[in-house]
Amino acid sequence: MRLAFNGPLELMRQFDWGHDHYALAHECLKDPKLVKFYAKSDKTVILDNGADEIKEGLGGKPLQELIEQIKPDYCILPDVLEEAELTRERSLEFLSNATKLKHQPKWMAVIQGKTLEEWTNELFFWMSHPSVSLIGIPYDINFEVPNEPKYIS
């Protein structure tokens, strides 16, 4: 198992926690020191679009510019919480424009959807997409799963 750590810059400098760095795009836009830190890292860097924190993940030119500056090993494609169709549209559009980037990270798709059926369809779609190397599973799925245990002890 690998641990990707994200925290305040001074804490990350003080403690060498985790195997990987987890860079939040919206935080990098606010702090050029973070961009510099991740760009110089010798660890695996995962650039996250920030959808979980800001509802709609960063995409387009701002995310492309961060990719060129940081040169992450992985980048999470633009997604929108619980929005399967919008996530697919934005991710595919981003991928089609990303071919122009000098730096080509491995791409990660995060599965979104309001129902188990939407979510499952997206999972199979992204699992078969040739550009996607990793699949992200949100920790806060807000739909019922048949036969799901009410609690785990």
Question: What are the SSEs and their pairings?
Answer:
Layout: E1 4-5, H1 9-14, E2 20-24, H2 25-30, H3 32-40, E3 44-48, H4 51-54, H5 60-70, E4 74-76, H6 84-98, E5 106-110, H7 116-127, E6 132-136
Parallel strand pairs: 1-2, 2-3, 3-4, 4-5, 5-6
Q: Could you explain the architecture of this structure?
A:
The chain has seven helices and six strands, in the order βαβααβααβαβαβ. It is an alpha/beta fold and 153 residues long. A six-stranded parallel β-sheet has the order 1-2-3-4-5-6. The two termini are 23 Å apart. The mean pLDDT is 89.
Q: Reading side by side through the largest sheet, how are the strands ordered?
A: 1-2-3-4-5-6
- Write the H/E string, N to C: EHEHHEHHEHEHE
Helix content: 40-55%
State the major sheet: 6 strands, parallel
Which residues sit in consecutive blocks of at least 5 with pLDDT less than 50? Answer: none
Keywords:
7 helices, 153 residues, single chain, 6 strands, alpha/beta, 41% helix, 6-stranded parallel beta sheet
Short description:
Helices cover 41% and strands 16% of the residues.
